[in-house]
Amino acid sequence: MTHCQTVCNRPASLEWHLKQLAVQVNWTLIGNICTSVSECWDSQGGDDSSGHPFNFPQICPLQLQHGDKLLMSADETLKSYGIRLLNVSKYDFENCSTSGLIKDQFLFPHNINESAQVEAKWLVPGHHYFIALHEGDPQLCKLGLRLNVSVKTQLCQGSPLLRLCSGSGICQTDLWEGAYHCRCHHHYSGRFCEKFDACLDNPCENKGVCLSNGSTDPNHRTYKCLCPPHFTVNCSEVIGKENCERVCENGTCVRVLPTSFKCVCDTG
């Protein structure tokens, strides 16, 4: 049997989807087999958590969202040949070995025939390693019939009743993260993007210092400006006409309130 090398295509980041997806993996030696970090992860850096690079054939690694369905099937050649799928440790995955008791580690009680759904107990959050055996022989694993599955949960809401990232961010993961986390929109911060920072763009003019209350209440997202002497509001207005004329170069002081003025720059 021969296999074809490939570069596994994968997005740089994934957004959490609210609806359960069904993901199909077809076990075959004639495609979707990669042999190195750069091929399998489309990355030169490699898996930061692996500790060392690898150089062995495997089915393109899979990243799943917790709760998604995983369906396994085999091509016609492997169906007629007969393979079973075994859950193994990372060491056994890398070395195509079957140490310890394997009876209770088979994904299915039979050879793969038609498409079959993997039980949820094999897909809890974390890393999972599956290899193919033919009558107990791991030779097919050494040719590339092994699959690394990462299952990720989301850490984007404080309660199931709340919106993801408080509706003020995107719940995403990247290739090497172990879970989905919030990427907050502009002005928002906090684990769940629950804090609003009105001072992010510094609305205080003339070297004023902005102080935000960092409120999580959308109706009380306020800030105040610590202004230089004689400045007020957001430090754009000057108290008293004389003070305004003193600081207003190449402009005209215009009254905006009974006691405050604003410097309007001359045109040209």
TrEMBL record:
<feature type="disulfide bond">
    <location>
        <begin position="184"/>
        <end position="193"/>
    </location>
</feature>
<protein>
    <submittedName>
        <fullName>Eyes shut homolog</fullName>
    </submittedName>
</protein>
<dbReference type="InterPro" id="IPR051022">
    <property type="entry name" value="Notch_Cell-Fate_Det"/>
</dbReference>
<feature type="domain" description="EGF-like">
    <location>
        <begin position="152"/>
        <end position="194"/>
    </location>
</feature>
<dbReference type="InterPro" id="IPR000742">
    <property type="entry name" value="EGF"/>
</dbReference>
<keyword id="KW-0677">Repeat</keyword>
<feature type="disulfide bond">
    <location>
        <begin position="165"/>
        <end position="182"/>
    </location>
</feature>
<keyword id="KW-1015">Disulfide bond</keyword>
<keyword id="KW-0245">EGF-like domain</keyword>
<feature type="domain" description="EGF-like">
    <location>
        <begin position="195"/>
        <end position="236"/>
    </location>
</feature>
